Amino acid sequence: MSGEQSHPTDCSEVLDRLYEYLDREMPDGDCAKFQEHIDECSPCLEKYGLEQSVKKLVKRCCGHDEVPADLRAKVLGRIDSIRGGEPPAAE
């Protein structure tokens, strides 16, 4: 994918990191660079719009389910264990 003009940020980099951008998990400096690219590159803007729409649809359809408290505690406990250097427990 390549827009009409040359961009400092490559389209493949934008598309590879699109969800990082959509989820606002990207550092601010990269975020501005990506926004500039998306604003100037119509193929990337189209892909961004599509992925943003899918994300909104999933949130609307699936975002209201409550996670059981015991499952949440178990997952957070595993994350803490792994961060602490413990190997994952086999089930």
Automatic annotation (TrEMBL):
<protein>
    <submittedName>
        <fullName>Mycothiol system anti-sigma-R factor</fullName>
    </submittedName>
</protein>
<feature type="domain" description="Putative zinc-finger">
    <location>
        <begin position="11"/>
        <end position="44"/>
    </location>
</feature>
<dbReference type="Pfam" id="PF13490">
    <property type="entry name" value="zf-HC2"/>
</dbReference>
<dbReference type="InterPro" id="IPR024020">
    <property type="entry name" value="Anit_sigma_mycothiol_RsrA"/>
</dbReference>
<dbReference type="InterPro" id="IPR027383">
    <property type="entry name" value="Znf_put"/>
</dbReference>
